[in-house]
Amino acid sequence: MGDEEACVKVLQMSNTSRAGCYSVRMWGYLPAASPQRLPLLQPTPVPPAASSSTDSALKIVCNGGCGFALAISESGKLNTWGSTTDLGQCYLISGKQQEVPEPYPLQIDTPIIQAAAGWAHCAAVTGKGEVYTWGWSECVPNGKSSVDSGINASGRNTEVVVEDTSDSIQSASLLVPPWNSSDVGFVKASPSASPLNASGVPLVTSRHAMRPGHRNTAGGKVCEKVADEVPKKRRLANTEEAGPSENASAADENVFAPPCLVGFEPGVRIISVAAGGRHTLALSDGGQVWGWGYGGEGQLGLGSRLRVISTPQLIPCLGTPEGGLDQSRLVSGCFTATVPGNYIKAIACGGRHSAVITDAGALLTFGWGLYGQCGQGSTDDEMSPCHVATLVGLPVSGVAAGLWHTLCITDSGDVYACGGNQFGQLGVGGDHAEMLPRLVESPILEDETMISVASGARHSAVLTETGKMFSWGWNKYGQLGLGDSSDRDLPVQVAITDADYVSSIACGWWHTLAVVYSK
């Protein structure tokens, strides 16, 4: 859950062009990838992909995934692994393969260049600047099935559904029977017609399962789902803040959507995506940010508490919101006049908040603020992108967001953190929340310059310019890679003894990945 620099690092050299080679290490909660479904407490080599060809080697690790991991191969295939139906995980989200990486069945010819995952949805960017997304229906834009006559390629009947707008949160661990990957059909999202009415109220404000052939009379196109492969499952309790072993239930039934080609305005080319709990951001090559999904706490930055936004909406990160300026907000530097920069260069999604960086290094945050994760000095939710004024003069180069916290790196290589700190995820010692960004200071980091940052749900990781990796925060499932399950409130170096240095890092909700180089 970080920006494109923190999420993934593309290796610029082939494994075969050097004396050594690159490989991926994993640790934390990836049940199918570990013996007896136990957490991996220390860095463990990722098994070779199902295909042993040279271009199947993994080269890019991706942020996100709730009990499953994502990485991109040399050939541009998005690989997933780690999930298991034993524990009720959903193959439609996390891919069919369990123990070893295997290409997710997107069935497209264009290479994937970047990807991210939330609790229960994924998004991937192709070399053509297109975005595919799948998983939780409210996270997948409205569209129409690419298969005509109301059935998918397998001949199964379809059902039409409207997006979920409940306040409940479900995890990725929802029981869905194994599916035939060859049967997955694409959904083409409708172009970005506004989902709002004249009063700015979301057109889709409640969820109903409608009879086949019916349309959503609230407006916009509906989305055809494969009834047999996208079943609903009722669960019992909120799992937003639960760990894997606590995921036995979720508060509401939900519907899963197959891969969808997201529709943007003509000429928009996407270069990176970020996935939050129930929302997605996309960054274009022109430096604009688009968002969709759930926006009840302002995480879509559209100026109000929008429920489900079912088509991508342009977020006014550097522009004046409709209706003019709110003078009371100018004090904190929320709008154009006080935000340096001409375009956005990086994005990140947390559980229910978001962050973006301008080309001038200004950090803007928006969304849920209960724990101070927006870094504005309060616990208020931010409905629109708001400049983190306390970092003025400290250009930000990278950002990552967790469930309740935010991390950023400055051009000078320092790390700042704000938000919830219940498990030490800020790395500043103790467990007190920080309403404003606080410098992560530790003797172990004194001589280090940080170049990349990543965040899981409640743990954090950084990479230094010398190839060292440090982590801190929640460690119940070994996601810190320190050989135990004890939380840490200060940075600790991750020892990867069979590698010379770490090249890039990424964090899932309860796991961590690293690309390492070995001679």
TrEMBL record:
InterPro entries, sorted: RCC1-like_dom, RCC1/BLIP-II, Reg_chr_condens, Ub_ligase/GEF_domain
For this entry, the protein name equals RCC1-like domain-containing protein
Query: Region Disordered: start and end of each range?
Result: 230-250
Q: RCC repeats located where?
A: 76-128, 287-360, 361-412, 413-466, 467-518
The record's listing under SUPFAM superfamilies reads: RCC1/BLIP-II
> The organism sits in which domain of life?
Eukaryota
What are the entry keywords? Repeat
PROSITE patterns per the record?
A: RCC1_2, RCC1_3
Tell me where the transmembrane regions lie.
none
- Give start and end of each RCC1-like domain: 266-514
